[in-house]
Amino acid sequence: MIQFMLLFSRQGKLRLQKWFTAQTEKSKKKMSRELISQILIRKPKMSSFLEWKDLKIVYKRVCELDIIFNFEKAYFMLDELLLGGELQETSKKNVLKAIAAQDLLQEEETPQGFFEDAGLG
Amino acid sequence: MSIKILTDTTISSLSQLFLLIPSHLKMLGGALSFSQLKKSPQRPPPNPGPPVAARPASNYSKNPLTNHGLALSYTNMPAVRGDGMRGLAVFISDIRNCKSKEAEVKRINKELANIRSKFKGDKTLDGYQKKKYVCKLLFIFLLGHDIDFGHMEAVNLLSSNKYTEKQIGYLFISVLISQNSDLINLINQSIKNDLSSRNPVHISLALQCIANIGSKDMAEVFAPDIPKLLVSGDTLDVVKQSAALCLLRLFRTDPSIIPGGEWTSRIIHLLNDQHMGVVTAASSLIDALVKKNPDEYKGCVPLAVSRLSRIVTASYQDFQDYTYYFVPAPWLSVKLLRLLQNYAAPEDPGVRGRLNECLETILNKAQEPPKSKKVQHSNAKNSVLFEAISLIIHNDSEPNLLVRACNQLGQFLSHRETNLRYLALESMCLLATSEFSHEAVKKHQETVINALKTERDVSVRQRAVDLLYAMCDRSNSEDIVLEMLTYLETADYSIREEMVLKVAILAEKYATDYKWYVDVILNLIRLAGDYVSEEVWYRVIQIVINRDDVQGYAAKTVFEALQAPACHENMVKVGGYILGEFGNLIAGDQRSSPAVQFRLLHSKYHLCSSSTRALLLTTYVKFINLFPEIKEQIQKVLSQDSNLRNADAELQQRASEYLQLSNVTSLDVLATVLEEMPPFPEKESSGLLNLLKKKRPGRVPENPEIKSGEEGGSSKPQAIISGGIPPPSAGNGGASADLLGLGFDGGNGDAGGSSSSMNGNGISADQPTDNLKKFYCKNNGILYENEIVQIGVKTECKANLARLALFYGNKTSTPFINFQPIVTCSPELATALVLQVKTVDSTVEAGAQFQQMVNLECVADFTSQPDLNVSFMNSGLPYKVSCKIPISINKFMEATEMNGDSFFSRWKNLSMPQQESQKIFKGSLPMDPTQTKTKLIGYGFSLLENVDPNPENFVCAGIVHTRSLQIGCLLRLEPNSQAHMYRLTVRSSKDSVAQHMCEVLADQF
């Protein structure tokens, strides 16, 4: 099973983290810190694998993904894709369908304009 | 640039994970460019750039929360449709624009104060506001700050009717609720309500939350509900998927929650579900259940094979939603292939045939031209291929498939994609363990060695090392060890220790010439001394001590190695130890005369740690024995203040005791005390292997011929009974601290034992001494001696196994030639006692001593003893020495403690006449109770105190171990000091044993 999933920037900022086994906050921080520095020093042509402690790390460089806004959506989507450290749904269409359904609910439920007018947001 | 990491503890799932990444990220991208997604939900654009904020600046400045004078840029503001929690977006934007860490903290503290006041305020917050603030708190937490409030508000959101509020509530508690929270009951109640909701999206949220937290009490509370959801006909497919993985998570928390009986079959049959997503989720669950209970779930094999077959033979158009870059259902294929690796190849010919067809098809497809140039296509295709190869290797039953797999991997070994080279090396490592493909793998040796030299990625080089280790056998061991040594010089620090262990294991395993082995280990120390753990250098010393053919060479080689101006401390240790034992073998050469050896070692002394110095002090005292001519020189060193008054107690003690020893004892006594180390218990290097496994848990490549534990030892020439003999005592075996017997109570203690017997016997030069009788009550000492030859014995016993070391000493000044010690058993003895005798060199140099190992196993009780006939030529004259090997049934006896009551009840139980043997005899030695006790204990009995009403009498108990039988033995010895007579009674469950013991012991007092 997948133990955890991290997404972080080239500057080492953690953007998304998902832990599929119980970990203390302290050990999460320690592990991500160590891993981020280990991964960042690896050169582009290297393989996507890193053997680290008793874990096998699989990583990939990707283009800028601005998930800091709507970060909660990233988590919702991740729950559709991966659950309990296992792949739940591999059909792109089905995952998007589930997310689209959530969005629809959101639109229906949200009162428009009220908060904007109050300037509170 | 962002980087995404996934981890997996199991290697085989790698390809699966690897495959996962690209599509997954695309989807995330899709999620974020929200509006675009909706227009074409099936095809998110490949590069979703950050959407541009549409909000006018004037509006923004109205927000009291953001009005803190920082320059703001809005270009990163997301477009929001519907509500999108604008306040949250503003807050995030603020944070992103903070120029410093301090500014960020300031902004966050301000926000926290605001939220706190909102939560505490009189005005009741509506759901939307709660959701927004809870989400802000979550964001702050994810930035790495502590959050100590808001939990209650999040729990309140769980019972909201609005999906989005519920969803945020669940997200918050999934991330932030500690398992022993006071709120857990409230949370569980909300989850329970949602699980039984009619709205499937609510059920899904509840299931995902359970799967994310997966606590013990959730396992208790929800375990009964989830299996029902999983198999019910009313459940939506998407809910079933979550239910399957939720159940898996709870099963991992508490394996007892899985219902058995009819549920088994219903769960297995999820593999037949029409919905591919359900099958995908369920196959992970089934895989875990199978691992726990393979028999109960073995019905999944034909279902998995037929499912796989349908996928593999399908065209990519057949599974529209589940086809990924022209590969039909790659993730599910991989899961099914892994599921099948829990079982041996199917026995049913139909299922087996079908599976082999699938595997062939997958191998065939690998040869087809790619349907797309995209990396996703080749990733998906290769993931399935690698998993298929894993299954082929696992089944290890189809030579044809194995060879094809090997050829396929061979192609990948020189592929331009680093990932493929990595995975090929990894899979080939497994392939090397199969007898069908071991030879085929060896064809790639050059390529693998080349990978070691040229790969730029340590991950790949490490795989190459593993593969070389796995493919190593007797035919290529010299090349491979040499290449690994060469690589060691430049190897990454992170893998050096592991490499040292591998080289040491291979060199020992495949050494035909132990000189080569010694060279390899010394090279290891030279090249990577810091990474040579003590287990490794202990081992080379053990081997040198046990193999007389290599001792002279080892002495010469370490002497040369020590010449280097800067040599590693481990080299000093090995050098010191070996010269202390065998320095005499090179002392004839003026260039390595005793004084030169000593000066060389002592020149390193002051640079060494105290543990090394302690070892060197022992070497020095051994030198006093080996080389009396440098005694004074050494005594001077021992008596230096820096040793005699060293702050380190161990050094101080060694220096003063060794000095004293060399002052007060005669040469003879010194010679015995400082005798050459007795051989170490023979064993394979499983200690090193275990160490290697500890270094890399779960990831040690197998070398098919090297196994840890009992299996080893069968292929080693001249080795010991296969299976080996357990070390006789803690002090002598394993990698314990006293392994080398450097302590005062270590190996030399035994030699001390033989010295007392030697002096006590008053050996005369003309009368041959035969001490056979004495060996009934002792294990070590001189067995036979005349003016030419001395034969010593050391015995170690454990249960029904024994090891005897016979020491032959040439007392003359000319060598023994054609030296042949022959051990024989009478035919009748041969059935009761299994002997294995190590062969020895036919020449014994003048003044030299060497040992011969004899391993024995007691199959049944016996009374006679094996014959030892030694013949040799000395100064042109033939000699023959005949004596008995001092092994007797009592050597296999274990002393047994018991109280008076159980002694007498056992005594009564052995009341049949033939079970008792009695003798009344006149003592031939002075009656000395202490001597008597020593003999009875030496014979192997435990002496039971306060059992016999008459304190003069002795009662004893013991159990004799044979291969199949344990024989209880009880003894009573009644001395009559006035008449100088004894009455001896032995009772045993085996009459022959009682009789034999009675006869032998009657001759001892």
From TrEMBL, chain A:
Per UniProt, which keywords does this protein have? Answer: Membrane, Protein transport, Transport
Extract the InterPro entries matched here: AP_complex_ssu (IPR016635), AP_mu_sigma_su (IPR022775), Longin-like_dom_sf (IPR011012)
Q: What Pfam family is a match, any one?
A: Clat_adaptor_s
> What is one Gene Ontology biological process annotated in the Swiss-Prot or TrEMBL record?
intracellular protein transport
The superkingdom listed in its UniProt entry is Eukaryota
- Ranges for domain AP complex mu/sigma subunit come to 1-61
Give a yes or no for keyword Ribonucleoprotein in this entry: no
> Where is the major localization of this protein?
membrane
Compartments, as annotated in UniProt: Endomembrane system
Q: Does the keyword section mention Transport? A: yes
Where does it sit, as one GO cellular component term? endomembrane system
In the record, the note on similarity to other proteins reads: Belongs to the adaptor complexes small subunit family.
Q: Tell me the PANTHER family matching this sequence.
A: ADAPTOR COMPLEXES SMALL SUBUNIT FAMILY (PTHR11753)
The protein's name in its UniProt record: AP complex subunit sigma
Its source organism is Tigriopus californicus (Marine copepod)
UniProtKB/TrEMBL annotation, chain B:
Which amino acids does the record list as binding a 1,2-diacyl-sn-glycero-3-phospho-(1D-myo-inositol-3,4,5-trisphosphate)? R86, G87, K118, Y128, K132, Y133, V134, C135, K136
Sorted alphabetically, which InterPro entries does this protein's record hold?
Adaptor_Complx_Large_Subunit, AP2_complex_asu, ARM-like, ARM-type_fold, Clathrin/coatomer_adapt-like_N, Clathrin_a-adaptin_app_sub_C, Clathrin_a/b/g-adaptin_app_Ig, Clathrin_app_Ig-like_sf
- Gene3D superfamilies named in the record: 2.60.40.1230, Leucine-rich Repeat Variant, TATA-Binding Protein
What are the boundaries of the region Disordered?
36-60, 682-728
Q: Where does this protein have compositionally biased stretches of type Pro residues?
A: 42-53
GO cellular component, as recorded? AP-2 adaptor complex
Pfam families in the cross-refs? Adaptin_N, Alpha_adaptin_C, Alpha_adaptinC2
Similarity comment text for this entry: Belongs to the adaptor complexes large subunit family.
Protein name as it appears in the record: AP-2 complex subunit alpha
**Species in which this protein is naturally found:** Tigriopus californicus
Source taxonomy: Eukaryota, Metazoa, Ecdysozoa, Arthropoda, Crustacea
